[in-house]
């Protein structure tokens, strides 16, 4: 068995330096707008506290395709694209925390809460309004980085513009726009499912997880790496499908950590999904259990969608999830793992096989 020793922060300092420089330049460009808050510094501080997993997956997958990651390649287009992904992630999380009303993110105040507390009366409307704007700013800044990266990639691959390079450049930008549009629509589905009284189907929950998390977090960086590494359409489709499986595994582990994890490590309150009325895979198997007694059902009704959950009820909810849902979720996780392994083994590139196998093991053992 390959040990879960994949390093997913190898390029953290390079990404951080590039993003810091980019935001500093943008701060100078918009210096004439007299805001009380240094918005570019706020974005930087928020973005750099993330794990930068998606950015690393782009660079490491490119490497796994047998391409050399030298200083010139990094600076000119790998770092712009990687930084763009991190800014998109920052914008999505800022908006997600507003929707979920989460006051904590990455071990500190969420952005809307940060702005709320800037006002003496703790004005939530002000905080959420400013956070919406900041999230939107992240998206447009990311778009500038994508354009920069694509232009530089074209220049490095061919001194003369060709139809083939133009086609790939267009596909890269179309890919990013399509995947992020799907994330937003899946977020809307998440809100819709939470607002409905009925229990969603397993297919609906899987669909939400696939487009809100899996494809964006894994298929997107894999496919971007494949495009810029000039891989075949078959290879692009292969890594896209593998990304879906790994992304679903990632989301299930995320749901697990949301119930049983250490919030000092995850940076997010335990059982926050229960408080927010999130209909996760764990929730689905719990409510579908035929072994829930009257006491269990009352506990679930009291905690699901509640403003707060006391310690005693929290412990009881964890025990209930463990008894009535954990085995079924583990079985689903193992099924996805076997499907991912089968698809990885079909790859012709051995280095890519090794990388994705290590990634699979890393995802299963992560604690944050």
Structural overview:
This protein has 368 residues and is an all-alpha fold. The protein folds into two domains: 1-157, Farnesyl Diphosphate Synthase (Orthogonal Bundle); 163-368, Farnesyl Diphosphate Synthase (Orthogonal Bundle). Strands 1-2 form a two-stranded antiparallel ribbon. It has helices spanning 12-29, 39-47, 53-64, 71-100, 111-116, 124-157, 163-195, 202-228, 233-260, 263-266, 272-275, 281-288, 294-303, 311-324, 326-345, 350-365; strands spanning 104-105, 108-109. Strand 1 (104-105) and strand 2 form a beta hairpin.
The largest pleated sheet is described as:
2 strands, antiparallel
What's the CATH class label of the largest domain? Mainly Alpha
Determine the fraction of residues in helical runs and give it as a percent range. over 70%
Any idea how many domains?
2
CATH homologous superfamily assignment of the largest domain: Farnesyl Diphosphate Synthase
Based on CA atoms alone, the radius of gyration comes out at 21 Å
Name the CATH architecture of the largest domain.
Orthogonal Bundle
> What is the CATH third-level topology name of the largest domain?
Farnesyl Diphosphate Synthase
How many helical elements?
Answer: 16
Distance between the termini: 23 Å
Quantity of strands, as a count: 2
Strands side by side in the biggest sheet? 1-2
**Helix and strand run:** HHHHEEHHHHHHHHHHHH
- Global shape: globular
Tell me, rounded to a whole number, the average pLDDT.
92
Strand content: under 5%
Q: What class do helices, strands and sheet pairing give?
A: mainly alpha
Low-confidence stretches: none
């Amino acid at each position: 068995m390959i040990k879960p020793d994949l390093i997913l922060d190898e390029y953290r300092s390079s990404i951080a330096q590039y993003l810091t420089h980019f935001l500093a330049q943008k701060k100078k460009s918009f210096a004439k707008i007299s805001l009380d808050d240094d918005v570019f510094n706020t974005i930087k501080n928020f973005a750099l506290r993330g794990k930068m997993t998606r950015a690393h997956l782009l660079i490491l997958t490119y490497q796994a395709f047998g391409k050399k990651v030298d200083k010139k390649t990094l600076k000119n287009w790998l770092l712009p694209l990687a930084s763009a992904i991190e800014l998109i992630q920052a914008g999505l999380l800022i908006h997600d925390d507003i929707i979920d009303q989460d006051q904590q993110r990455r071990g500190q105040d969420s952005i809307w809460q940060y702005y709320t507390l800037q006002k003496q009366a703790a004005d939530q409307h002000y905080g959420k309004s400013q956070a919406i704007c900041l999230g939107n700013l992240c998206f447009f800044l990311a778009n500038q980085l994508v354009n920069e990266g694509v232009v530089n990639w074209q220049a490095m691959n061919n001194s003369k513009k060709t139809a083939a390079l133009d086609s790939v450049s267009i596909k890269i930008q179309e890919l990013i726009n399509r995947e992020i549009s799907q994330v937003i629509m899946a977020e809307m589905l998440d809100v819709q499912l939470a607002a409905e009284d009925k229990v969603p189907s397993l297919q609906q929950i899987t669909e939400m997880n696939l487009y809100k998390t899996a494809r964006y977090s894994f298929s997107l960086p894999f496919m971007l790496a494949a495009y810029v590494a000039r891989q075949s359409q078959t290879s692009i489709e292969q890594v896209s499908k593998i990304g879906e499986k790994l992304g679903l595994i990632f989301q299930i582990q995320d749901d697990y950590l949301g119930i049983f994890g250490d919030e000092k490590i995850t940076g997010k309150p335990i059982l926050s999904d229960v408080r927010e009325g999130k209909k996760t895979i764990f929730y689905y198997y719990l409510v579908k259990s035929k072994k829930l007694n009257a006491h269990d059902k009352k506990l679930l009704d009291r905690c699901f969608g509640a403003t707060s959950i006391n310690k005693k009820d929290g412990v009881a909810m964890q025990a209930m999830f463990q008894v009535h849902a954990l085995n079924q979720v583990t079985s689903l996780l193992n099924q996805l793992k076997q499907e991912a392994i089968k698809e990885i083994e079909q790859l012709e590139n051995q280095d890519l096989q090794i990388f994705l196998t290590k990634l699979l093991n890393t995802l299963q053992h992560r604690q944050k």
